[in-house]
Each structure stands twice: as structure tokens, then as C-alpha cells.
Amino acid sequence: MAMITRRLFSIVGAFVVSLTLAPQVSPIAYVVGSLSAAIPVMIIQLVFIPLFVGFLLRNKEVAKAIA
Length: 67
Known about the structure:
Layout (H helix, E strand, L loop, with lengths): L1 H19 L6 H32 L1 H7 L1
């Protein structure tokens, strides 16, 4: 959720900057670049983190240390 919230604030910030400080700059390129770089990383994190946590919980030594 934090990944998506950060991207939303980033998009809002880009539009605010384009409206106030730099009206000649289009925020569309920034938003497209940001999202195209972020989506693969989000997918990787959403796939590998649960797998890693599951692996750690199945490991008896780690499970004993956590409990």
C-alpha cells in the first residue's frame, strides 16, 4: 500500500509543480516514466516477499527465533 500511496503523491506533486513553478513542463512524461519503472518493481515485491516470508516461517530455526 505504501508503494501505491507514494506514487499517487508523486503524481499529485508533479501536477502541482507543473501548474505553479514550471507551467511549460508537462508532467505526463514524468508520470509515465515513474509508473513504467515502478510497476515491474511492485510486481516483483508482491510476488517475492510472500514467498520469502513463507520460506522463513517454514525454516525451523527462524520460526523458533521469531516465536
